[in-house]
């Protein structure tokens, strides 16, 4: 991507508020052992998996094959996420918030939810963008609504789901995910208003609101094309996505280990349209780190072979709400365990209730 912008303001390019400095600067001061160990493990397992991808006779071949398969499905999402994060780092936060809306309420949450639906990225790529939106000044309710709506609601995966489970079920799943996103975002914003969750410190750096069209006209004059600018976007995007890449690699390693011990085929036979099967689905999607591309065919199996639409929806939605990569990334970005842990606590009961109702049909 060659469309480059100059730095919008010095305040945007630096970690301006002192109290939010830790949330802005993702790179840890100490050596990041989790990142490097996970990276080295993936780097070693990936070529082995490419050689042994059809051999599932040993733990090593299954583990490396899982790394090979999952990385091939998620790398592009991370790569595009890095580009989007790099671009967002150059866009004035006032312009971002003019699009999402500064006011708290259903309208701003609806905008954030629609943004998540229409941004065609997988869960790993969308997570990096969501964390950057927080640093642009979005409320925690908007960020949560954005994350819950986006991971499997992209255009490409929607078309895949059309073929796997049918248009009607796919549209129903998307509608229900929008409802969960808006409801959960509203709860988060209400908890912030009550002082039970910390507010976004980046919002304090927003200037007086200016009409979006006026901001765009002024911003458009700063656009230019250059190779140096392109490299700058990639550099800033990688730095801003470091925390997400770290946990994505760790989740990839853990998913490979679980694949070596828990066969995927068991999903279709163990998890029927019962409360027991629904709870087992919740347990499985909590334990197993599956990206949006990987979760889609498994969810289709739960729908078609196990005749459990509620389990299928639960596997898609609860996989987002309980994803440890997402939870740890939210914690590292917001510096708040309360915000991170509220994601599954608020979302999972809604998912289970809707899943139980869907299984009745």
Automatic annotation (TrEMBL):
Transmembrane as UniProt keyword? yes
Task: State the annotated membrane topology for this chain.
Answer: Multi-pass membrane protein
Whether Cell membrane counts among this entry's keywords is: yes
What the entry lists under Pfam families is as follows:
ArsP_1
What are the subcellular locations of this protein?
Cell membrane
Q: Which UniProt keywords apply?
A: Cell membrane, Membrane, Transmembrane, Transmembrane helix
Transmembrane domains' residue ranges = 33-54, 74-91, 112-134, 154-184, 243-262, 268-288, 337-358
* Coiled-coil residue windows: none
The record, for PANTHER family, names: UPF0718 PROTEIN YCGR
Q: Which family does it belong to?
A: Belongs to the UPF0718 family.
Q: What is this protein called?
A: ATPase
């Amino acid at each position: 991507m060659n469309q480059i912008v100059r730095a919008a303001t010095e305040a945007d390019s630096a970690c301006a508020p002192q109290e939010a400095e830790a949330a802005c600067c993702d790179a840890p001061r100490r050596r990041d052992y989790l990142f490097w160990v996970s990276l080295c493990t993936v780097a070693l397992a990936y070529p082995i998996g490419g050689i042994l991808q059809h051999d599932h006779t040993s733990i090593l071949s299954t583990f490396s094959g899982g790394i090979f398969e999952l990385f091939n499905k998620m790398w592009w999402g991370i790569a595009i996420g890095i580009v989007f994060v790099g671009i967002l780092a150059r866009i004035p936060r006032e312009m971002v918030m003019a699009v999402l809306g500064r006011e708290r309420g259903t309208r701003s949450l609806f905008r954030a939810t629609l943004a998540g639906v229409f941004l065609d990225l997988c869960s790993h790529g969308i997570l990096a963008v969501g964390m950057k939106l927080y640093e642009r000044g979005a409320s925690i309710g908007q960020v949560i609504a954005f994350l819950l709506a986006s991971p499997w609601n992209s255009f490409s995966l929607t078309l895949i789901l059309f073929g796997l489970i049918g248009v009607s079920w796919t549209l129903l799943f998307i509608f229900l995910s929008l409802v969960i996103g808006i409801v959960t975002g509203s709860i988060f914003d209400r908890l912030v208003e009550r002082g039970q969750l910390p507010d976004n410190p980046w919002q304090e750096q927003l200037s007086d609101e200016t009409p979006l069209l006026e901001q765009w006209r002024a911003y458009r004059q700063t656009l230019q094309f250059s190779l140096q600018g392109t490299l700058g976007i990639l550099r800033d995007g990688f730095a801003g996505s470091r925390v997400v890449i770290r946990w994505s690699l760790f989740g990839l390693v853990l998913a490979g280990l679980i694949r070596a011990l828990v066969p995927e085929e068991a999903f279709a036979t163990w998890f029927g349209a019962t409360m027991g099967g629904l709870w087992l689905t919740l347990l499985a999607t909590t334990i197993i780190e599956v990206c949006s591309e990987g979760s889609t065919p498994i969810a289709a199996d739960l729908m078609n072979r196990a005749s459990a639409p509620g389990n299928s929806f639960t596997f898609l939605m609860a996989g987002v709400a309980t994803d440890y990569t997402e939870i740890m990334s939210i914690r590292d970005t917001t510096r708040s365990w309360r915000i991170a842990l509220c994601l599954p606590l608020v979302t999972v009961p809604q998912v289970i209730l809707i899943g139980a109702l869907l299984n009745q049909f």
